Amino acid sequence: MSPSASPSVGSTPLLRRAAVLGAGAMGSRIAAHLANAGVPVLLLDIVPPGNAASRSSIAVSAIAALLKAKPAAFYDAASAALITPGNFEDDLERLKDCDWVIEAVVEDLDIKQALIGKIAPHLHPQAIVTTNTSGLPVASIAAKATPEFRRRWFGTHFFNPPRYMRLVEVIPTPESDAYAVASIATFADRRLGKAIVFARDTPNFIANRIGVFSMLTAVRLMQEQDLNIEDVDALTGSIIGWPRTGTFRLADMVGIDVLAHVARNFAASQGHDAAAIKLPDFIAAMLERRWLGDKTGQGFYRKDPAIADPKKNRLALDWRTLEYREAARPKFPSIEMAKNAESLPERLRLVLGGDTKKDKAAAFLFPLLTSIWNYAADVLPEIADSPADIDRAMRTGFNWEFGPFEMWDAAGVAATVERQRADGAHISTQAETLLASGNSSWYRDQPYRDQPEEPQVFDTATKSYRAVSLPSGVATAASFRSANKVVRKNPGCSLLDIGEGIALLELHSKKNAIGDDIVSMITQTLNPSSEHVRNFRGFVIGGDAGDFSVGANLMQLLLVIQEGEWDEVEQAIRAFQRMTSAIKFCPRPVVSAPFGMCLGGGTEISLHAARRHPHAELYMGLVEAGVGLVPGGGGTKEMALHAIDAARASVGIDPAAAPLRFALSADLQDALRQRFETVAMAKVSTSAAEARGLDLLAPSDPIAMNRQRLLLDARETAIALAEGGFTAPVPRTVPVPGEAVLPTLKLGVHLMRKAEYISDHDVKVATHIANILCGGSLTPGSLVSEQYLLDLEREAFLSLCGERKTQERIAYTLQTGKPLRN
């Protein structure tokens, strides 16, 4: 079954229980991510030799390691309870209850074949079995199984760590049942949040094949040009749209033994490229010495325990001598200049346009990238159905910003090929076919993921462009912009018609920092008298960027503070509060769709929405205390209201009927203390599930697992609210505890200071937060309005802006991206 015949992704299948065979680093993390999706998982491994305390101790230990893993394997530690440990001797009978069984044992064909023979009698007749092999031929693993087993057998290659890496390569065999393949592909897409790429059953499939060729080509060029490991990492990081780890730091993280294993798969394949992907002698020596990277404490880099300073204790390997020395911080003039370019295509053209005889960066990058691009084109007919499949695999499997064909388009296919011809370099026949057809780019007009309706990519077989099929339910703001759906826009925010009567307020300032542009656009759009409120039945706030929002524009704020324009500062705070109030009291439902970093003001936007529909990977928090401020856009006010609502549900007292009794209740005190800790300690969630625990998301807020589906998922939530008879809330009047709780919170702050956990300025900030949450120094049970709480926020924010230590914190964070504890 070829990728061109791959089944379409349809509705999510029912999958009640899964099993993972192999509790190693990869298998256990696959099990953890299935648990993240709410799927009960059976995790099996061998019975350990000797007198182990438990016959299932390998799986038990793996689960314990998952709970301590960094980065975290689980969205919520409670999900670990969904994993049941077992072993291959005592627990195979349990497989009869599993709908999907994933083989993830050691990469040894004999071991895998023996295991398949062992489990086959215990599977229920409809169970789907897949392998997570990273490079062995999928069909060969099941070659000795029955035809019925082979019908339900294919490859599902996850990338490590499975929670964070989006790619799953699905590798059908000629015997694989199309419905079974489609079922698992759909489940992995919708429930596990994965980008699905169908690959052919060839050595190392798609991403590892291109990725390892890229890494080993970089190694070869490093040796030819006598560069250092740090030089190559500086040249192969974010400047060309690759992860900032570069080549060798990434290899240390993945494992040099894994890199070697993939390279050996090429050699064993005897394919036309086997000789091109060969491990150099110095890496072979590293393997002999067990210098495998992070897992063994040293690889291309290691830390010097004798040096405490983390900026100086990193040692780099000298590949010539296999000795470690202090890591250098290389600087290339052309790279430093290219960093000022706003987009990757601009950076690529700058770094590749240099004179390769004079510019070291160009001398390395031009042959590196053109080799990768031509290699990808050479192997295209063998490994994938389309350049789009290869690009998608590299973006989601190796975190490249652009795939190789997209990069080639950005740099200019015709221009780079002309330079290669002049150098006598190899040019792929696929590229020659493209240019001979009279075309000069792999994609029609622009990279396919930004196309509005039917993206098109060049097909070298037909010598014409053809549509790239995208799963239903996937869309971007860019696709609606390309389809001329922009209603209005300014530099920081756009209003887009995304269909079904729903509009998107797309944030697109630098890092989505919230400044005047965003504030004015949201406020004007959601005003009850706005034509947009009349024309649309609901709104979504979101976008295409890597992060939802890093919060308010601190640079803008600091400049105004330093100029002493206090009236302007106050007006800005009032404007921000009017924006969040417009979100909350809009006559139409507003759904926030946060993702990535959603900090400070970004969290305040979300807290005021009628519903939040976040992506599972969410780093959300009211972090203003870290820069010496309080949440001033209604965030502290909303946390106070959340505490009141939580206490009312718990204590069973109607605050309106018995305000004093309610204000004095222990339930209210506990609810306020929990939210005080969240705000004063600037807690940030590590997932959407954890954000629920911090009361930044409600239990009723749905969570999208697949980032690509977030926009349309959030649109469906807005539609459901609109069709469900949405009624906007009205401003509330609530009883506050005042002096019944405020002294208790202040005492906690005092004790923290006495123990030297916090600074004097932290005390000042925390006291302001406590004051707002409690409604100030009022008589317990006093009734106050939401506006009163907003006024307390604004006064505290203004007061702290005048503090020198707050200004120092803001400046330090702007400079370093880190908080300052002064």
Report what the structure shows.
The protein has about 800 residues and is α/β, with parallel strands linked by helices. The protein is built from 33 helices and 23 strands. An 8-stranded mixed beta sheet has the order 3-2-1-4-5-6-7-8. Strands 14-15-16-17-18-20 form a 6-stranded mixed beta sheet, with helices on both faces. Helix 7 crosses helix 15 and helix 23 runs antiparallel to helix 32. The longest helix is centred in the middle third of the chain and has 24 residues. The N terminus is likely disordered.
Secondary structure elements and pairings:
Blueprint: E1 18-21, H1 25-36, E2 41-45, H2 57-68, E3 83-87, E4 100-103, H3 109-119, E5 128-131, H4 138-141, H5 147-151, E6 153-158, E7 167-171, H6 178-190, E8 195-198, H7 207-225, H8 229-235, H9 246-254, H10 256-269, H11 281-288, E9 301-303, E10 314-318, E11 323-326, H12 333-338, H13 344-352, H14 360-383, H15 387-397, H16 404-411, H17 413-423, H18 429-436, E12 456-459, E13 464-467, H19 477-482, E14 486-490, E15 493-497, E16 502-507, H20 516-526, H21 531-535, E17 538-542, H22 554-562, H23 566-585, E18 590-592, E19 596-599, H24 601-607, E20 611-612, E21 618-621, H25 635-651, H26 659-663, H27 666-680, H28 688-693, H29 710-723, E22 733-736, H30 742-754, H31 760-774, E23 782-785, H32 786-801, H33 804-816
Parallel strand pairs: 1-2, 1-4, 2-3, 4-5, 5-6, 7-8, 16-17, 17-18, 18-20, 19-21
Antiparallel strand pairs: 6-7, 9-10, 10-11, 12-13, 14-15, 15-16, 22-23
